[in-house]
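@channel sequence for tomorrow's demo:
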Amino acid sequence: MTHADFLDLSPLASAHGTVRLPGSKSISNRVLLLAALAEGVTDVRDLLKSDDTDRMLEGLATLGVQIESLGDNALRPSSGQAYRVHGCGGNFPVKEAKLFLGNAGTAFRPLTAALALAGGNYELSGVPRMHERPIGDLVDALRQLGADIEYQGNEGFPPLRIKPPSPPSPLLGGKGRGQVRGDVSSQFLTGLLMALPLTGRTVTVEVVGDLISKPYIEITLAMMARFGVRVERQDWQRFVVSGGQHYQSPGTIFVEGDASSASYFLAAGAIGGGPVRVEGVGCDSVQGDVRFVEALALMGARIEMGPNWMAARAPESGKLTAIDLDCNHIPDAAMTLAVAALFADGTTTLRNIASWRVKETDRIAAMATELRKLGATVEEGADYIRITPSAISYPPQATSSGIDTYDDHRMAMCFSLAAFGGAVRINEPKCVAKTFPEYFETFSQVTKPIEVISIDGPSASGKGTVAQRVALALGFHYLDSGALYRLLALAAMRRGIALDAEACLAELAGQVDIRFVGAGIWLDGAQVGDELRTEESGAAASKIAALPAVRAALLDKQRAFRCAPGLVSDGRDMGSVVFPDSVLKVFLTASAEARAERRYKQLIEKGMGANIAALLQDIRARDERDSQRSVAPLQQTTDASLLDTTALNIEQAVEEVLARYRALK
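structure tokens (generated this afternoon):
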């Protein structure tokens, strides 16, 4: 179910299939900037289409770089877009401009460095979160090399104003030397290295402290080499860019698939059975996040790899195992491990992830908050997170508030995996546009929801008995939605709450503990018997079921019964409202006379007094009331198949439903 502000994901049963990955964000924006700085024309293929790349393209166009869209890749339309970039040889045509770069760190940091050495007047700004992301270490390093940069807001943070370097400057003669911290963000060093060839001099950059996210620096060095500039790396502590080097177009360059995005699908294969295969990145990738598969393998997943593909499937045992891992080499993909930990035996600890604190949001704090919503026990530190999953009960408790995403694309994509444990709501899902606009559509193509068979129909039509026997035959769970309303009415009467007190009943619906265990029904820890099947109970249930607030309050509780291996539910709006994606919808009915006779026999068999004329009158009145109510009226939906059981016995009705289900296979 979709909404402008949230996306409801149905509980997932399995994952299987093949995904063609979008281009890497990290490589896409590096390649665009290098193509702009190079001499010659570069055709960039398989470029990621996302907010981050859009900001870089807009920024370069504002600076006067000529960029032509070549459309989608004709050979692989799903793999991205193609652009022709006319390089300016390091000399941007526009010398005075204002650039808005959103929340794109892969655009903001490198452009800051390049423009600081480009000899123009520029203002760089972004969204409020971008103005909270530190950039002081990069600015300090650039100032050491003679750059003139001013903060227009808080010291050490964007927005920035850049002016041409004023002589005398270390860049104007001799060897330059600068320092940059390596323990906050690798993007500082990346931006600096990519800009240094513009000086025309030999410059040495020393890294202060431990360098985090080394794989991203490897990407930077590899991309610079593709454009003809070599960097001498001295044990990750010193980088030397020799003078006299200039970026040269390689002609055509293809962007690898995004290894970070691969992690979600590979984890889905490891959790949901698999195999799930991702194409566009493999064992020969320049991206460090391909090592995510090593972490999955440590958790027990079965991994296969080739030069341009990877695949994952569940462990032989079917259950992942917790790990304790230093994640410095896979900082973005490590987020996926945090959610995968919900499906692992034991406590998972992810270490050396301090860079999470300065990303699109404080990812350690955000991850801890959202994992706790799903029942996990979470411990967070300055540079680590420790996750112990909760024991899964039936039905799982719904998380009606949803998973908050903090305008962070990776939070949204990571938590899609939580649907393997039950229904999950993703708030603000459109934030995935930053790197993978079609993520949820692609995710749905390789995942299979837990199947639901919905059997709706009027009172006393036999749908409850049929549904229960179908569930038993298939080994599925069973939800008697009518019993939910009866149980709520019973709980209300026990507490002295009037059956027309809508607000009080809705509040009670969110508090009451209702469980189905085998053939037994439990209310607030006590088993309930025949009192649920009395005419008084049915009438009370019908009355409160007409209250909109009550139905809304029970909606999440009903959906929580959707658990593996499947569910058979019966009621009056199971297929239309509660489970609209049911694999099979049956509208089961019978004549009012037949239903009255069946109810009469049931009551007599239980030793209860009954009058068939009164029962017939009550059934007709209830049909009228249920079909006329404003909320979820009783009606056959267009995609439900009719099953009239007037002339059928229970066994025949059950076999007919099973036959219709088997016909779908």
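heads up for whoever presents: The chain has three domains: 6-20+258-449, 25-254, 451-662.
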